[in-house]
Amino acid sequence: MNVKILIATHKKAHMPMDEMYMPIRVGNALANDNFGYTGDDTGDNISEKNPYFCELTALYWGWKNVKTDYIGLAHYRRHFSCRSGKWKYSLILTKEEAESFLAKADVVLPKKRRYFIESLASHYKHTHDLEHLELTREILRKQCPEYVEVFDKAMKHTSAHMFNMMIMKRELLNQYCSWLFPILFALEDEIDVKNMPAFDARLFGRVSELLLDVWLKQNHIKYVETGFVQIGDENWGKKIKGFLSAKFGGKKYDRSK
Question: What is the pTM of this model?
Answer without folding.
Answer: 0.91
